[in-house]
Structures are given as C-alpha cells and as structure tokens.
Amino acid sequence: MNRIKLLIVINLITVAIVFFFYDTFKIKHQNKKFSSINESINALYLKNFAEENVTRIDYNVWLIYTKVGVDSPLKFKFQNLIENILNVSTVFIKFHVIVDSNSRKIALAQFTNVSSHSKNPFKWYFYDINEVSNIMLDIVEVLTPHFSSKPGTYYSDALFYISLGLYRVAPADQDIAVMLDCDLYFKDDILLLFKEFDWFKSDALFGLAPELTPVYRHVLHKYRLSTNTTFGSYYNSTSIISHLPHPNGFQGYNSGVVLLNLRRIRESKVYSKVLSKSVVDYLVQKYMFKGHLGDQDFYTLLGYEYPNLIQTLECGFNRQLCTWWKYHGYSDVFDKYFKCKHPIIVLHGNCNTKILS
Ligand SMILES: *[C@@H]1O[C@H](CO)[C@@H](O)[C@H](O)[C@H]1NC(C)=O
Ligand SMILES: *[C@@H]1O[C@H](CO)[C@@H](O)[C@H](O)[C@H]1NC(C)=O
Ligand SMILES: *[C@@H]1O[C@H](CO)[C@@H](O)[C@H](O)[C@H]1NC(C)=O
Ligand SMILES: *[C@@H]1O[C@H](CO)[C@@H](O)[C@H](O)[C@H]1NC(C)=O
Ligand SMILES: *[C@@H]1O[C@H](CO)[C@@H](O)[C@H](O)[C@H]1NC(C)=O
Ligand SMILES: *[C@@H]1O[C@H](CO)[C@@H](O)[C@H](O)[C@H]1NC(C)=O
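Above are the sequence and the 2-acetamido-2-deoxy-beta-D-glucopyranose SMILES. Below is the predicted complex in structure-token form.
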C-alpha cells in the first residue's frame, strides 16, 4: 500500500515539475529578450525635446534590414528612408530594425551618421533575424506553401511573413507600431500615419492601403470565372473608405506599409485561428488562390473573409509606383487600379521604381 502511495506522490511531483518547466519555457518564449546595442547613444538628443511630447505615445517603426552588401541599393534606400522620415516628422521615433550580423554593423554606422546631423532625436533597437524567424516558424510553415514563389531555406522564408508574427517579437509594452518597406519616401509627417489608428474599426488588428495593380485580379482569375464577385475588381468610387466592407470592388492589400495594433493582436482570439493551417488551407482552396507576395497575400485573403480584421487605409498612405502589370497583359485596366486621388503621404518605389520626389 505504501508503495502505491509513494508511486502516486512521485507521479504528482513529476507532473508538477513538467508543468513548472512548461510554464517557465512558455513565458520565456513569449517575452524573449532581444539584445540591442548602443540604443542609448541618442539619450543626448532627448534634451532638445519636451518630456511630455516624448513620452505621450510611442512611435514605433519596424524595418527589416538583412543581406545588405557594401554597395547594395538597399543600403542607400535604408539611410535615405531614415533621414527622410526624420526630416519630415515632428514626433520622437523609435526604429526597430530586424538585422543579420553584417547588416547590423552597417545599420549602426548609418544610424550614427544620421544622428550626427539629424535635427530630430530618435532611438534605435536591433533584433536578430535568426531569433525572430525561430519564434515564428509555425506561421511560416502554414503560409509558405501558398504565398511564396519558390520556398527557400534558412530564414529567407520568414522574411516575407514577419509582420504577421511581429506581436511575438515586439516588447510587450508596445501597443501600436508600423512596419515599413525600405523603398518608401515620406512626403509628410509620419504622425499622420499613426493618426490612422484613431479611425480603426473596433475589431481591426491591421491597417493597410490597397494594392494599386491588378495582381489580385490575376490571382483570382479562376475564382472570378466561377462567381460574380467584386473581389479583384478595381475600386469604382472616389473614396475607398466606407462603412461597408469593399464597396464597388476590392483590389487587395499592399504590405509596404502595415499598421499593427499589437495589443489587439495579442488579445485576439480570432487571430490565431485565422493563422491556423486548416483555415488558411480552406481559404486558399475556396478562392483558388496561388500567391507569391508573402504577407500581403494573406492580408488580401483575410480581407475577403474577415474584412473586420483589417482597416483599409486611403491609397495616399502607400502610393505604389510599380507599373509592371501595365506591360504584362493588363494595359486595358491598369490605370483604373493605379489611380490614387488622395493626397500623397507616402510614395512606394516598389519593383525598383525610381521615386522622383
Ligand atoms: C557603441 O558605440 C560606440 C560609440 O559610437 C562604439 O565605440 C562602440 O563600438 C559601439 N558598440 C558596439 C557594441 O557596437
Ligand atoms: C509638443 O508638440 C506640439 C505639437 O506636436 C507643439 O505644438 C508643442 O509646442 C510641443 N510642446 C513642447 C513643450 O515642446
Ligand atoms: C533631409 O533634409 C536635409 C536638409 O534639408 C536635406 O539636405 C536632405 O537631402 C534630406 N534628406 C532626405 C533623405 O530627404
Ligand atoms: C554619412 O552618410 C552620407 C550619405 O551616405 C555620406 O555622404 C557621409 O560621408 C557620411 N558621413 C560620415 C561621417 O560617415
Ligand atoms: C451572375 O450574374 C449573371 C448575370 O447578372 C446571372 O445570370 C448569374 O445567375 C449570376 N451568377 C451567380 C452565381 O450569382
Ligand atoms: C461603378 O458602380 C456603379 C454602381 O455601383 C455602376 O453603375 C457603374 O457601371 C460602375 N462603373 C464601372 C466603370 O464599373
């Protein structure tokens, strides 16, 4: 009898130990600390700024900066963007940059360079791409088969989906953030972009501007033949903002500028469901969708089925310039997709289009 009691006690202890370690592991996993260096170098510049204006809200800007060569175009785009944003903005910005070890060195030199002559104070933080991709492997695994042109290796796949797992990377006290491509040019204050959070629908987790080419008309070709949908059709109205989801067409989304309500994403019960393999596989099948543009394919698909989760921004917040589709089978309708009547806040030189600001 005693032996059985002993066995039960041992069993209970084992269970307790397993739970303890499981819990410890989980917490560690979620609050993973990312090392950042030289983040306080700009404390000096804080003096120029009134405390109330610095601390009222965080202006968190996320960038991905990997595989940078000494002379690569990305290197120049990156420094230009940092300088450009600081030039036109009135708020205290925190740059959060996802880097590999080589890009980190280059970025550090560039931040230091910019901070030596910038009139605006700012801070920066680095996050290692290997750590970042490791904590979103599950997301990448679900999405890569459907939204990557040629699934690759190492962290290269993760690069296309980082905005979707950013809530696991960003410090827990970060409530809102924007994630940007490096091929952007801000014509106006980044504060205007952050003000868009105030207009978010009560369920909206992300904010994105429309894709300005017929790429999703192309992707939905088969689906459109089988139904009378307006998904994939151009916006047939001057304003795309409406109380109705997707009135008069839906061009899909472009992920060059992504607004993230990180707090809502963390608390959302729906979000992990829509990112599950079963839901993604179902949506892809339903819309006969084969994409190649990474996270923006997922946002677009989400827009079909769960429009309340995404806030559509006006085109001026991500005025894309790529005209590739105009010369590849869509010359007749291209301009209808490409039009943007809204005042331009952000220009996006996608597909290597030169920005003539
Ligand atoms: C931090 O900045 C200082 C001064 O610019 C520099 O000497 C140092 O090497 C930097 N630290 C690291 C870890 O890069
Ligand atoms: C804080 O910012 C506002 C505008 O953003 C400006 O008008 C005001 O002068 C600033 N306050 C201080 C103390 O600098
Ligand atoms: C930022 O402003 C400075 C001073 O007006 C200007 O010389 C520089 O070209 C601007 N940089 C960018 C990237 O817009
Ligand atoms: C800072 O960057 C600019 C633009 O790339 C470059 O022309 C300049 O020489 C750099 N300054 C320093 C001190 O490295
Ligand atoms: C699509 O529209 C056509 C013409 O308006 C109509 O005849 C047809 O029934 C519609 N099909 C579906 C599936 O709604
Ligand atoms: C735009 O939508 C209206 C009604 O929603 C329709 O009457 C009109 O034909 C549409 N125009 C185009 C160019 O699709």
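Residues 80, 83-84, 87 surround 2-acetamido-2-deoxy-beta-D-glucopyranose (ligand 3) (CB under 6 Å).
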